[in-house]
Structures are given as C-alpha cells and as structure tokens.
Amino acid sequence: MILDTLENIGMYASLNPLFPKVVEYIQNTNLATQEPGRVNIDGNKLFVNHNITKGKTVDETRIETHDSMIDIQIPLSCPEVMGYTPRENLPEAEYDAKKDITFYPGHPEQYITVHPGEFVIFFPQDGHAPCISPVPEYKKVIFKVKAF
Sign of the C-alpha dihedral, residues 136, 103, 140, 80? Predict the structure, then answer.
C-alpha cells in the first residue's frame, strides 16, 4: 500500500508499466469535473471509474483484495477512511474471478484517512476496506491497473 499526495504521483510511474499512463491522465484531466462512468485508457488493462460513492460505516464495509488488478483510489470531494490488512493476515475466502475480487469477514487491522489531493495504491497483497465516510455520497476516482 502506498499513500501520498497527487503532486508526487509521478514518483511511482516506474512501479508498473501502465503507471505512466495513469500519471498522464491525472495531469491532463480535471478529475473533479468528470461525469460518473468508466473511461478506458488501455482496454481492460487500464481504466478509470469516476464514481459517486455512498459513504459507509465501519460495520457496512468489507475487506477486499484483487488478484489481477491494482487499485489507485483518489477521493475528490471529501476525506475517505480506508481500512487495511495485509493479505497474508486474512483468512481463506472465495475468489470471484469474473469480478476479480475476494471479500473477507471481519474488520481491518488499521485505518487511514485519505484526503482530496491524496491517493492510495492497493496492490494484490493489500486487503482494503474503502468508502468509510459519514458523507452520504461523494466523488472519487478509482484507477484499475493490470498487475504484472
């Protein structure tokens, strides 16, 4: 997991061959003004979801992991709390290959607050529980990047 400010996003471009395209998209797009929906950047290997997200309580959220994709999550209109547990500390659970997601029972080991102007990267080894917010609905962006 990586948490940093958007002004530093370029420092992480070398971590994945598709990350430079993420950096370019962020630098050339006003994320806050985009309509909700999916934008394909490089087919199913790299796309971005512009979302209106419903805020959840700690008890409503679930820990998840992805085997094939990396998440880069950016809250836009308010801070968002996200839970984190290393995948190695999670129990066995059923993987949904079609949706590339595994959900786990219980609560995360720790929580971070991600503010507008910041991003978090969750790799396949990072269990995460996003969308914790008292705000009923808020804007966020989630890049889905093929893990190599």
Answer: positive
What does the pLDDT look like over 42-97, one tens digit per residue?
Answer: 999 999 999 999 999 999 999 999 999 999 999 999 999 999 999 999 999 999 99
Q: What is the CATH number of the domain that holds 102?
A: 2.60.120.370
Backbone angles phi, psi at 108, to 5 degrees: -65, 160
Residues in the chain: 148
Residue 60's beta-bridge partner residues?
Answer: none
Provide the sign of the torsion angle of the four alpha carbons 111, 115, 121, 124, taken in this order: positive
Signed CA dihedral, 16, 17, 21, 27: sign only: positive
103-128 pLDDT, tens digit each: 999 999 999 999 999 999 999 999 99
Tell me the pLDDT band of 148, cut-offs 50, 70 and 90. confident
Structural domain for 103, as ranges = 2-146
**Partner residues linked to 52 by β-bridges:** 139
